[in-house]
Every structure is written in C-alpha cells, then in structure tokens.
Amino acid sequence: MPQASSKGLLEEEERKRKEERKRYMAESCPPLPLPRSMHELQELCREIHHKIDVIDEERYNLEIKVNKTNKEIDDLKIKVQDLTGRFKKPVLRKVRMSADAMLKALLGSKHTVNLELRAHLKQVKKDAKEEDKELWDIGDWRKNIEDKSGMDGRKKMFEAEA
C-alpha cells in the first residue's frame, strides 16, 4: 500500500512540473507573430536584436560580478588560512650521520665524496713571503721621489735599467 501512495505522489509532482513549464513558456515566450510584409519582418528583426543586446549586457555584467566575487572568495580563503595559523610542521627525528654519509645519501651511491678539508687547502710557499719583504724594504716614498727628480734622477733610472 505505501508504494501506491508514493507512486501517486511522484505522478502528481511530475504533472505539476509540466504545468509550471507550460505556464513559464507562455509568459516568457509569447507566440511569434509571423510578418506579412517586408517592413514587419524588419521590425521583428530589430526587436529581436535589441532583446539580444540587452540579454548580452546582463550576461556580461553577471559574469564580471561572478569573477569578482570568486576572486574575493579566494582572497578570503587565503586570509582565513593565514589567521588560523601556519601549516603543521612534521616532527623530525634526530639522526646521527656523518657528513660523508649525508652527502653520499643525497648524491647517491655513485658519487663518493670525501670531506677532508685539508686536502682542498692551498699550499703557501715561503718564497712568496720573501718577495713581500723586498717590496716593504723600499722605504720612504718621499726619498724615492727626491732621488728621481731632476736630470740626475733620470740618469740613475736609465743606468739602473741597463
């Protein structure tokens, strides 16, 4: 018995939907008057074009509003996420690993990396230090200028080069 009453309710809803559809179509889409002359046909086309323009404007305006509200919604979602706090950071385990083992794990088993820091250092020669001492032994710069001034100084420069 309950099936019969539910079946009747479904049929009643379907009938109401059909009636509502007919009523809406009658209100929104009146029957199209067929023109008898060329002038009436042109007037009908103008009216239809005008209605299309109005509907396109409404559609464009609604599209802009929807895009604007979607952007606002996205911005608000980001703000809510920022206000609720940062993302949960996972708890990291402490791992004891040498630097060589860590680089080997990062670079793969093909790469063998040796972290001998002394092997990469530049060797300093003691001869370089002696050259620096000679440069500092030149002395006072004023004395050198006085020696080179005048014709005697120039003569000494040429004699020193030869």
Q: Would you mind describing this structure in some detail?
A:
The protein has helices at 2-28, 38-84, 99-107, 126-136, 141-148, 150-161. With 162 residues, the protein is mainly α. It is elongated.
Q: What is the overall shape?
A: elongated
Radius of gyration of CA atoms, rounded to a whole number: 48 Å
Structural class: mainly alpha
Number of strands: 0
Q: What summary fits the major beta sheet?
A: none
Helical residues, percent = over 70%
Number of helices: 6
Order of helices and strands: HHHHHH
Q: How much strand content do the residues show?
A: under 5%
Which ranges are low-confidence, i.e. pLDDT below 50, for 5 or more consecutive residues?
none
The termini sit apart by 132 Å
Q: Give the averaged pLDDT, no decimals.
A: 77
Characterize this entry briefly.
This protein has 162 residues and is an all-alpha fold. It is built from 6 helices and no strands.
